[in-house]
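[step 3/7] inverse_fold.run input=structure_tokens len=262
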């Protein structure tokens, strides 16, 4: 039996205007772990997430889903297995929050887009997803009536409602306040503990290290270190990537805290 994995194998991705942005990246995500991608702006985090979601065509290497090439899966099957939330989303329609989340539930239920109503099962999936991100209080409000952070939570709920096996999130904590950042990462850790494979990017090294089971540092399109958070935070690779513009403060138990240099 092939283990449940989502992996990049010697993956290269090039964009027309900038050339190659990923250079032979290999990364394997297993069910049950929360892996957080860290690295400077422009290092390739978003491109790697898009490639693993099947939204960026490799110029070299490949993406494998459970040992089979991801390119061989149809769009609908990918959507049922992989939930992806990009860093920036501009919904085409001004849905109510619960309607936006219902789009994800339709993927899980294999419902056709023109069908009206989701039934009790779909309604329950929508409510579960909204509740998981503390968004039930504004379920009936339209997206343009929400703050940036509230809208972000609704979009995350929409991905959760797909009930995917793999969750790929690009900067999911962006625009969230401290309370909801922490709550979100607790949720991601719990989802991983329940058997999902979760990969997300984050700029907050402290938030990442407190909840990740694993961290991977990407710098100039190459993963330079991949391992437990404490190992990555103490590594010379991290110091080089951020030009040593931080210092570590021991904060037992667990990984040290990261503070910027004055």
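[step 3/7] decode complete -> sequence:
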């Amino acid at each position: 039996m092939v283990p449940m994995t989502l992996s990049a194998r010697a993956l290269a991705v090039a964009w027309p205007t900038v050339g190659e942005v990923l250079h032979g990246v290999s990364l394997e995500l297993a069910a049950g772990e929360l892996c957080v991608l860290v690295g400077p702006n422009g290092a390739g985090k978003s491109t790697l997430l898009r490639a693993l979601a099947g939204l960026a065509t490799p110029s070299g290497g490949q993406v494998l889903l459970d040992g089979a090439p991801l390119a061989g899966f149809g769009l609908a099957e990918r959507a049922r297995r992989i939930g992806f939330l990009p860093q920036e989303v501009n919904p085409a329609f001004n849905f109510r929050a619960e309607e936006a989340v219902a789009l994800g539930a339709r993927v899980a239920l294999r419902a056709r887009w023109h069908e009206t109503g989701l039934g009790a099962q779909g309604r329950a999936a929508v409510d579960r997803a909204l509740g998981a991100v503390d968004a039930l209080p504004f379920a009936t409000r339209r997206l343009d009536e929400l703050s940036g952070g509230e809208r972000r939570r609704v979009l995350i709920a929409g991905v959760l409602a797909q009930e995917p096996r793999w969750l790929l999130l690009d900067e999911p904590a962006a625009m969230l306040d401290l309370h909801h950042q922490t709550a979100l990462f607790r949720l991601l850790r719990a989802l991983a503990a329940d058997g999902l494979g979760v990969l997300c990017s984050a700029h907050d090294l402290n938030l990442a290290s407190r909840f990740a089971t694993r961290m991977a540092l990407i710098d100039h399109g190459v993963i330079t270190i991949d391992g437990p958070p404490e190992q990555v935070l103490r590594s010379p690779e991290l110091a080089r990537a951020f030009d040593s513009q931080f210092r570590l403060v021991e904060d037992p138990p667990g990984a040290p805290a990261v503070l910027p240099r004055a």
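[step 4/7] annotate
The chain has a mean pLDDT of 91.
Residues 178-193 form the longest helix (16 residues).
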